[in-house]
Structures are given as C-alpha cells and as structure tokens.
Design brief:
single chain; 148 residues; alpha+beta
C-alpha cells in the first residue's frame, strides 16, 4: 500500500473551503481531473454519511466514486473512504483525508490532501495526476468566485 499527499494554498477562509470539499454543491464545482462536468454529486457530510460523485472527462469517459465519511470536523478536517465504481477499482477501498489550516490571518487556507491505502505505485501516480487536476479546478473556482 502507498499514499500521496498534495498541498495547496486556497484563497478563501477554511469554512468556505470546508464547504466546497464536503457539500454536494461544492463538490460539483471542482471534482474530476480536467474541465469536464460533474454529473452527479451527492453528499451527507456526517460521520457514517455517504457521498457519491460521477464526473465526465473531456475525452467523454465517465467515472464514479463513492464512500463514507469517517471524520467530519468543520472547518479543519474531513476523512472518508474512497472506492471507484465499476471496473476501475483495483485495490478496494482507500482513504482520503483533507486537512485545512488558516493562513494569511485567516483569509486563506492551506489544504493538505492525502490519499492513503492505494494499491500500487501505478495507482498512486494515476491518482496524483487526477487529484492534482481536481485541486487545480478547486483553486480556479475559488478565484472565479472571488471576482464575481
């Protein structure tokens, strides 16, 4: 088993970022590795609650993941299981942890994203690219919202 960790600086308060990473409306704005749309976003952000996300990539392929919230501590931390649906899942459930820390006097957030219990190095590399793209989308969404 292996894991990956990505760190991003998000130009919004932790409470805003927490909502974007836990609510169905927030997830619909950024989930997925490229600029393709989120088709389904369901989220019940409480311990034991479930989420389901289906997105379409620009190449037309669709991918769906589901999981259960393991820890929900607004606006600091969320942990959840992760499982691809269909034939994409080679290693069973893995785990996502998102830690949020206020920076710049609380005006911005340092987001630390960890995807643990990945089945192989190849899976880690694939997920690193996917999550990197998704977190880039999250950053762009926050910047667009700030200008609106």
């Amino acid at each position: 088993m292996t894991s990956l960790t990505l760190v991003r600086r998000i130009a919004a308060r932790p409470a805003i970022v927490f909502d974007l990473v836990t609510s169905a409306e927030g997830i619909a704005c950024w989930w997925g590795p490229d600029d393709g749309p989120v088709i389904i976003a369901e989220s019940d952000p409480r311990v034991g609650g479930r989420y389901r996300v289906r997105f379409r990539m620009l190449d037309g392929s669709e991918h769906e993941s589901t999981g259960e919230f393991l820890e929900v501590r607004p606006p600091e931390r969320v942990a959840m299981t992760w499982c691809w649906q269909g034939d994409e899942d080679e290693g069973g459930d893995s785990q996502i942890e998102i830690d949020l820390r206020a920076i710049d006097g609380g005006a911005a957030t340092e987001l630390t994203f960890t995807h643990a219990r990945l089945a192989s190095e190849a899976t880690r590399i694939s997920h690193e690219g996917g999550w990197g793209g998704a977190l880039d989308k999250l950053e762009r969404h926050v910047l667009r919202s700030a200008r609106a």
